[in-house]
Amino acid sequence: MRSGSTKEPSSNRPLDMTAEQLLQNVRLQHERERREKHLFNWSEEFYVDAHNLEPLLRICANFTQDPVALRRYGMKPSKGLLVTGLPGQGKTHFFHLLRICLNRAGVDKSFAVRHVQALLHEFEQFGSGIIKSLAQVRLRGKDLVPVLYDDILSERPARHYGGPEIMFMTEVIEERYKLYTYQNILTYFTTNYRSEEILGTYGERTLDRILGMCNVVVFEPEATNWRTFDPSNVKPS
């Protein structure tokens, strides 16, 4: 339970749309990005089928705070997300499109993105003194904002100039948990691993921190793998 929390940040307030409407906006954004940026290696449309519909709607419900969808999926309001699934299932791509849609709804509705591999190199260059900087991202240098940490557990143990090797993300997650507890600042994570593997690498305390501040969304192995996706195999509905 959060203690000492202040009022909800504007980024946590509900969007005036349902989870289904936001998902449709994201699909349209995929087509727009492909067309305007000539990304013709992308599929013509963002395909949604029986295997990935529910996890995508869960993500959207978390952002719209659509009460009907939150109840349907047993999700708690005003929490971050841990999104887990196999490589190639479109987790990062979906968040990329989602962020563009949220920016259109208002920049204060969106989130920052930090790629864990890039943070690894920052930590190895600057050491533990940079942990708070890795954890605290501000809008225009002022208000703290939600952050997506993309691809957690992809990082190796880090060492700063001969110091001990550590999993530096455990310290970042601890700082994000404090922001959630005391200031209601949300955090999102994507990973290719399940909770058991997070436990084995980060430890029980860090897993508890993640689960304490996040709803969990799982892409099952049957969900579309975009690296091997062939649209010619899609059957007309």
Distance between the termini: 44 Å
Q: Share of helix among residues?
A: 40-55%
- The side-by-side strand order for the widest beta sheet comes to 2-5-6-1-7
The strand count comes to 7
What portion of the residues fall into strands of 2 or more residues? Answer: 5-15%
Question: Number of DSSP helices?
Answer: 9
Oligomerization category of the chains in this entry: single chain
Outline the low-pLDDT stretches. Answer: none
CATH class: Alpha Beta
Strand pairing plus helix content: what structural class? alpha/beta
Order of helices and strands: HHHEHEHHEEEHEHHE
What is the rounded Rg?
18 Å
CATH superfamily: P-loop containing nucleotide triphosphate hydrolases
Overall spatial form: globular
> What is the name of the CATH topology?
Rossmann fold
List the topology elements.
Blueprint: H1 19-36, H2 53-64, H3 67-73, E1 80-84, H4 91-105, E2 112-115, H5 116-126, H6 131-135, E3 138-139, E4 143-144, E5 147-150, H7 169-183, E6 187-191, H8 195-202, H9 204-213, E7 214-218
Provide structural commentary.
With 237 residues, the protein is an alpha/beta fold. It has one domain: P-loop containing nucleotide triphosphate hydrolases (Rossmann fold, 3-Layer(aba) Sandwich). Helices cover 43% and strands 11% of the residues. The protein is built from 9 helices and 7 strands, in the order αααβαβααβββαβααβ. It has helices at 19-36, 53-64, 67-73, 91-105, 116-126, 131-135, 169-183, 195-202, 204-213; strands at residues 80-84, 112-115, 138-139, 143-144, 147-150, 187-191, 214-218. The chain has a 5-stranded parallel β-sheet, with helices on both faces. Strand 3 (138-139) and strand 4 (143-144) form a beta hairpin. Helix 1 (19-36) packs across helix 2 (53-64), helix 1 (19-36) crosses helix 4 (91-105) and helix 2 (53-64) crosses helix 3 (67-73). The N and C termini lie far apart (44 Å).
